Amino acid sequence: MLLALGLAWSAAASVAPSPSWAKPHAAELANPSAKWADNYLSELARKGEFSGVVLVSRGGKPVLERAYGQAVAGWNLPNRTDTRFEIASLTKQFTGAAILQLAQAGKLGLDDPVTLHYPQAPATWAGITIRQLATHTSGLPNNEIKDFTKGIAAPYTSEELIGTFRDRPLAARPGTAWAYTNTEYYLLAYIIEKTSGQSYADYLESHIFRPAGMMDSGFASTLAIVPRAAEGYARQDKSLRHRDYFDRSLELGAGGIYTTAGDIARWNAALDGAKLMSRASLEKMFTPSVPGDYGFGWFVTRKPHLREFHEGSDPGFAAFEARYPDQGVLIVVLSNLEDAPVRRIEADLAAKFVTP
Predict the structure, then answer these.
(1) DSSP string, 186-254
(2) Which of 20, 47, 53, 92 has the fewest CB atoms in 10 Å of its CB?
(3) pTM of the prediction?
(4) Which residues contact 344 (CB under 8 A, 6 or more apart)?
């Protein structure tokens, strides 16, 4: 989720990259593609175009895991492979997983009408189902900054978030069009909380992060101190500045999770091993919608390879995650530079690590 904020209040800092963190693993040094990738990423960092961590694994084993640039520019503290990054809209895959878990447990039905779980829904929502929310086919309108009636620096409850779009007309008749929106995932977070009896953050912690061994992941308030977390930056001319401010609650269900590249790998291993949900639920997660090519928190395409992926963008952060299940390849790009070309980086790495 990229909020188009115009609050350039932060002081500038040098964009000169710090050295890469630690030394390559022996396996990396023996892999020509990994050596190429390290040189490629080092050059991007040198030019101030990338700061963050990249992980490539095949068959669950890392082929490349390297850190570049600075986690805290003001103190010249380098990113490390265990640095925590905000992952913006990559969060949606965890929201989708929570919904599938609750459906598997019999606490909701994927084709339940939203009105069953949100009685305050207007009459126009009568045809919307939970599945349509997850696959971006509900027709709900998306939000712009002006729709956040308390502004973007104030906290919102789940009910207040839903109130920012509840009384606006639908953008399309439910099930007839695909449109990427955050509002649908606000409503899914609300349903998760009401159905489970836990906060969104607590549900993810107890049902996804802990069972998957993701000890470096969570959903924290904006002002919380998160150990080993990178600060988010934007580029301004030839300098860095701190990212624009917005309250974390504006992302509930649609963004806001922090994690590490290693935890993303653990998450994918847990999915591949059906550790968090049944194979039938996993199939639903990665079944693309019609219209659209979106499952439960994932884009899914099949040409030229089966590819399950998502991009994330927030003030100060950018992320990209791609799975190539037929080849057992996972590519994770996490950055604390908001305009880092994470999509292009993933594509360039895939050209080296994914067999044509």
Answers:
(1) HHHHHHHHHHHSS-HHHHHIIIIIHHHT-TT-EE--TT---TTBPPPEEEETTEEEEPPP--GGGGTTT
(2) 47
(3) 0.92
(4) none
